Amino acid sequence: KVRFLKIQHTVFVDDSRDLTEAEYHRLLDAAKRKKDSRLYHVMLAICTTGIRVSELSFLTVEALHKGKAEIRMKGKIRTILLTKELCRKLNAYAKEKGIRTGYLFCTRTGKPLDRSNICHDMKKLCRAARVNPEKVFPHNLRHLFAKCYYAIKKNLAYLADILGHASVDTTRIYVAMGTREHERTLQRMHLIS
């Protein structure tokens, strides 16, 4: 008779895949230096709202005027608030690119950007930003949003709603602490005499 092991979900995650705030800012700076305004604003939008790449098409000029984006996917609707600062930056981007209505981010042919477009462009920034390429992919910006939000708000259920997760268990993965952070927490406990 074969018995299966039960594996408890991990309390902490591998640091080698976690994008830090400092690394994120270096990626933004590298995009600015390369004068890749679209990539700079895409990364900014994903990381400050927590939206998925597939939801970028809901970030429109009209959404900026309302200060919120209505995400309609899989028969569900959720509202993403856009801060005044983000709206200001994205409006300036739209003006710079001559975008008066519709999608803010699209290909030269007018189609919405997809994950591979963005990932490819982000990987080009790694060397200039001094960031490990294994950490650089669009979904990691969403994870960084979740970690930063949770560090301030500490409400997993609310964060799950913002991210559009059906289960809080999915959100828990996003905010799991890294190995180094877990180690620092254990050391701060000062329980060894």
UniProtKB/TrEMBL annotation:
- What SUPFAM superfamilies does its record include? DNA breaking-rejoining enzymes
| This protein's UniProt keywords | DNA recombination
Residue ranges of every copy of the Tyr recombinase domain listed in the record: 14-188
GO MF terms listed in the record are:
DNA binding
Q: Which InterPro entries match?
A: DNA_brk_join_enz, Integrase-like_cat_sf, Integrase_catalytic, Tyrosine_recombinase_XerCD
**Out of the domains of life, which is the source?**
Bacteria
The answer, when asked if Heme is one of the entry's keywords, is: no
GO biological process entries = DNA integration; DNA recombination
Please give the Pfam families that the UniProt record associates with this protein. Answer: Phage_integrase
- What is this protein identified as? Tyrosine-type recombinase/integrase
Which organism's genome codes for this protein?
Answer: Hominibacterium faecale
